[in-house]
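note to self — DONT lose this again. spent like an hour looking for the file last time. sequence + predicted structure for the chain T wanted, 217 res
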Amino acid sequence: MQTRILWIEGKRAEGLTFTTELQKKGYELDIVPSGNAALARLALFDPHLVVVHAASMRTSGKRICRAVRESMNGIPILVISDPQLECRDICADVVLKLPFTPRKLLNRIKPLIQDEGKKLLHKGPLRLDLENRKVQIYGRETHLTPRLTQILHMLMINNGVVIQRDQLFRKIWNTEYLGDTRTLDVHINWLRKIIEEDARNPKLLITLRGVGYRLDV
């Protein structure tokens, strides 16, 4: 599985933007021009890392980092900063001040990317083992199908956020055909039987009629 990086870069990027170098190294990049565009892509692209090229937007990046954290808490954030701008109180994992080499950027990215084979997610009582496709909750451990694992993963990394049905279906089934999304409802029901104490009265996996689903843990 390729490592996915959501790269936020404005029109004022000068010289080397580093994106070509990262793509050559095998990273999958989704490049967007603003913080608002990044927020719209977060759940759908499901990145492993967010890079904020703040220098290209003549900003510190503080506001963008805060918005990303509120939308997808726990995701690593790296900020590329203008050396002339103040960078205090930025909720980023790494701040790199220009100029620097592509090699330095790669060296700082690697520790931020979790090994997919060892990735464990924790949200409230839920513990998801992505490598072995197992979920633990309330003392129960259950093996999941690949698709159920993907659905639960997406819900967990967006805990507390409503994910639209169409958006979830496109991401998990990797299709633009939305003629019949009932299979998604079937998978949600299966998932409820696994993680809820009472699947008929769900407390964790909530349906918002006509909108989508939200995990509340």
